[in-house]
Amino acid sequence: MVYRHQFLPALVALICTHSALAFECSLSADSATATVVKPSGESLRLGIRKEKDCQGIRVSSGSVRIVYAGQSGLQESVLAAGAVINPDVLKPVTNSGYQVALRQLGLILAGDEKQRPGMLRSAQLQSEDYAEILPHGDILWRATDMVIVIPTHDPKQITELEVTDDNGRAVPLHKVNNGYRIAHTDFSEGASYRWSTTIDGNTLRGRFTLSTAQRAEQVEHTAHAALVSGSGASSAWRDALNKATSLATQGFVWDAGRIIRESL
User: Fold this and answer.
1) What is the pLDDT of residue 104?
2) Do 17 and 135 have their domain in common?
3) By C-alpha distance, which of 249, 217, 243 is closest to 230?
4) Residue 155: predicted pLDDT
């Protein structure tokens, strides 16, 4: 049985690249004695590690968990001592939708990781990463309030967050423990909004557009159908990952992040 917390370290390290040739993955120890040997001969004792090209890495002792973009989205596998990572067997894909989903999940979990005492901080968020963490692109209309989570242990890092509609009208922000809340009644279906903020002295700006309620229902239906038709044992955590992938491939990347955050 695989528990949800076992996925977290590996997901934190999984950030997509633009290389169509490299087989990127994250590796994490599945046992206390886990070590791997890279094709160069370098031997590594694993805690957690991101590799831009995992092809040819051999598990020399213990067992190792590998996470990568597979045929149906996020895939994970446990490799025992003696196994060699072979993309011809694992069949990774470079589908842009899956990679975008994985990058969003990695960014969110990297921020979540920074708030969890004792966790290995293998991924570091940069100021520019917040352009992807804050609302952006197409976002599903929901009849519930929007929560903008600020994934940092230092609340002073992000300041002066402002959200306006296309007419320049300020959208009220309500401070909450982990960020900001915007009442859904302050939004309109199909409308576009802009935000600006200062993070570590850098000014960032972004834009997002809410779908209509009808479009949101269609997207949610497609995501649900993907869960029903999926293979393998179901779990709340696995369903969240699969739904996030479906939303991202339909163009709703920020919502993919919201789903994974709510499942933590």
Assistant:
1) 58
2) no
3) 243
4) 47
From 94, 123, 142, give the residue that closes a domain: 94
Mean pLDDT by 10 residues, the chain (264 residues): 43 38 72 86 72 86 81 75 88 62 56 39 57 88 90 58 94 88 96 89 89 96 77 64 83 86 72
Pick from 73, 78, 143: nearest CA to 105: 73
CA 11 – CA 27 distance, rounded (Å) = 9
- Based on the domain organization, do 15 and 137 belong to the same domain? no
pLDDT, residue 8, reads: 45
Judgement on whether residues 138 and 78 belong to the same structural domain of the protein: no
What pLDDT shows up at residue 128? 66
126 found inside a domain: no
Give the pLDDT confidence score for residue 26 in this predicted structure: 72
Q: Is residue 242 part of a domain?
A: yes
What does the pLDDT read at residue 162? 93
Domain encompassing residue 41: 4-94
Report the number of distinct structural domains present in the chain.
2
If asked whether residues 83 and 137 sit together in one domain, one would say: no
Q: Tell me the C-alpha distance between 13 and 114, whole Å.
A: 13
Rounded distance between C-alpha atoms, residue 7 and residue 263, angstroms: 12
Query: Is position 110 within any domain?
Result: no
